[in-house]
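EI: anyone free to look at a 340-residue chain?
SC: sure, send it
EI:
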Amino acid sequence: MKNIFENTRASWVRYSDYEWRASENGKDYLLPTKEAQPKPYDPMEDADNLVLAAADIGLMLFHKNPEKAIKAAMQAFACKYGLLGIMTALPTTAKFIEYEQVYFHKNQIIKTETMDTEDYISLFFPFRKPDFHKKGVESVWNTDDRMMMALIMTYQLEPQATVMSFMRDYGEQYEWLASVFRDWAFTLVTATLYEIDRERLDDMTMEIYRKGMAAFEGNTPTYHLELREHPTLVWDFHSLLLNIQLLFSMTLTDEKNPLKICHQCQRPYIADNRQRGRTERTVSEHPAAERDSRRGRQPFLLWRSVRVRASLQAVRCDRDHWCGRYLLRLCPELRAGARA
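SC: here you go
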């Protein structure tokens, strides 16, 4: 079967700059600055880096990094990829504006099963409410901002709620963003620990791992059919969150290039299983870890090999460093194995 996601409609909007702003109830929202300019782009063109950036922030939350650093990372993520579009990701349909009530899938953000449509929309516009009026299933939305009008015309075929999430006054709470990124990191860490420990897990612990993985669920993208040269299935991503979630799941389960956590820097990377060879490895902490910890560095985790090959390409994570660059210099055992 050919790639079923060959045809997608996943265009998204990012602004040139974002800021954190506190609302009247004390909640911090991330939203575009007043001078920021919007720019449409296709997330699918940079899918791997999008997944890595999302997993990076999730692991920062998982390791309880300082909130200031996490907020800076979220702000940089938004400048590169835009906000997550949580407003259209949680309801059972992205066309919820056509209904008097919004219905939700089970999620960590909205605890109720239903909510009044206007009340739900107001959660994402804490500083300036849109000129939006609804009567029954009919609604009217006005704007006098020319840039916003251009976005509305560009995305006139998209659900109205999706276009509203591109507006300058649309924002997302820090707690909401943290919950989403943390869930992705939890799934990645669960998969990593399971892979390391599965040979010695008892049945009860195995079941805990499985339940933890099964908890990763959510809304799914919709699709429609188009008549091009022949009938064509086109996937609709009305939220960047759903886009990342699907890409994350596909990358995590990919047999050739799965999503992994680097054992040296504890950051995510896309592995290449075709280069791993047959070297058996276990992970142990390098003696320099305690010294590096005192200097404020990340503990150095060393791959110790039972059968060492001359090439150490297998432990390269292809991020900002080479995990194996210190192996031959620091470990005599590996040095002797490489010469052999």
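EI: Confidence is low (pLDDT under 50) at residues 276-340.
SC: 👍
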